[in-house]
Write a structure and sequence with these properties.
CATH architecture of the largest domain: 2-Layer Sandwich
Number of helices: 16
Order of helices and strands: HHEEEHEHEEHEHEHEEEHEHEHHHHHHH
Distance between the termini: 66 Å
Shape: elongated
Oligomer: single chain
Structural class: alpha/beta
Helix content: 40-55%
Number of strands: 13
């Protein structure tokens, strides 16, 4: 299979950012270069935007900057081919982003314009750490695939924007996620603060929901329960869990609830955007569960009775058995009995060990959802 055929195959299903990224990885591996990047050009605004890349990163996808900051994209924006076997020896390679490229160790490169008629709509760029790079065969290879890449970029631009439901009961977090997705994916975002609102949005006949984004908990409901509710309500959109904390149990429950992707909020905007893009092409991500931690945590949570779980939570809050008994309206001996059963199920011998083990397994955060602070057990 030729390089062009391989690129065409990668772009055959959907011209999304993830598919374009896969195509760039194929080109990079075939040409054996350090970095290849794809940029959309907005002639009216005089800017370029990073669509996808492969290899050593310089700018995250979605970044938009003035054309005057970079020679490698500015030249293709004029409809011309850029070629430099030595950036250091190129007097014209002196713009602000050019300097960053050099500071990151790149020494040579080339780029070709992506043309619709005579108008340049993008640039396909190679950057290399090698000096005295032979650019001619690389330019030929880029020109060979440029039509396929151009058509994919044009199709991605003209396709209806993805519609994403951000499901989170914290308005600040929801707004932050919404702006990241809206700016980077040119997506239509709907923020839902309750499961009922999310279900109503997904049922709306005129609403085409492409992706659900939620946390491990949503308005006091665990992710597995929330996603099952959405599925039973008729929603078939793939779900991405953007978790506020790392937990193998959280991954397991998200997977059991039907989520197709899992990332941490602390992974940053780029990882979140990439995960959404992968979901749109049917690719799952983030469920690299290893060891027995998830299985242990799920088994412990499943087999704890409601009373044992309540005792565990109260032990974690530092209450003594007499206080636990009063809180749960039971006798102190009954509270100690629940604790003994709890210790046996967690394979520990003391209250301190029980709290430590439950926290290690990620059980505590899931038991705390909807836990009353007072009243009967």
């Amino acid at each position: 299979m030729s390089l062009k055929e391989a690129v065409d195959s990668a772009l055959a299903q959907e011209p999304s950012g993830a598919a374009l990224g896969d195509a760039l990885r194929l080109i990079r591996e075939e040409l054996d270069v350090d970095r290849i990047s794809l940029h959309a050009i907005n002639e009216a605004r005089g800017t370029f935007r990073v669509i996808a890349d492969a290899g050593d990163a310089i700018l995250p996808s979605g970044t938009e900057l003035p054309l005057e900051t970079t020679t490698q994209v500015r030249v293709p924006a004029l409809g011309e081919v850029f070629s430099s076997s030595s950036f250091e020896g190129d007097a014209d390679f002196d713009h602000s982003l050019d300097q960053l490229v050099c500071d990151m160790g790149f020494r040579s490169g080339c780029s070709v314009p992506l043309l619709i008629g005579t108008r340049s709509v993008g640039g396909l760029c190679i950057s290399s750490r090698a000096t005295d790079l032979d650019c001619e065969p690389l330019i030929d290879a880029l020109n060979d695939v440029s039509t396929s890449i151009t058509l994919a970029v044009h199709a991605a631009r003209t396709a209806p924007p993805p519609r994403i439901l951000v499901c989170h009961d914290d308005p600040l977090v929801a707004e932050g996620l919404a702006r990241v997705l809206e700016n980077s994916l040119a997506a239509e975002i709907e923020i839902c603060t309750t499961p009922a609102e999310a279900l109503e949005q997904s049922r709306e006949p005129s609403s085409r929901v492409d992706t659900l984004v939620c946390d491990s908990f949503f308005a006091g409901e665990r992710v597995d329960s929330f996603l099952r509710t959405m599925r039973s309500g008729g929603s078939s959109a793939p779900a991405l869990v953007v978790a506020s904390s790392s937990s193998s149990l959280g991954r397991t429950l998200a997977l059991r609830g039907g989520a197709a992707g899992y990332v941490l909020r602390t992974d940053g905007p780029t990882r979140i955007i990439e995960a959404v893009q992968r979901l749109r092409t049917g690719q799952a991500s983030g469920f690299d569960l290893t060891g027995t931690a998830a299985a242990e945590a799920e088994e412990a949570m499943t087999h704890l009775t409601a009373q044992e779980a309540r005792v565990l939570l109260l032990l974690e809050r530092g209450l003594r058995f007499k206080q636990i008994a009063l809180r749960m309206n039971i006798s102190e001996s009954t509270a100690k009995g629940y604790a003994r059963n709890l210790f046996a199920k967690l394979n520990v011998h003391s209250r301190g060990e029980a709290v430590f083990e439950a926290r290690r397994q990620g059980v505590l955060e899931f038991l705390e959802v909807g836990e009353p602070t007072s009243g009967n057990a």
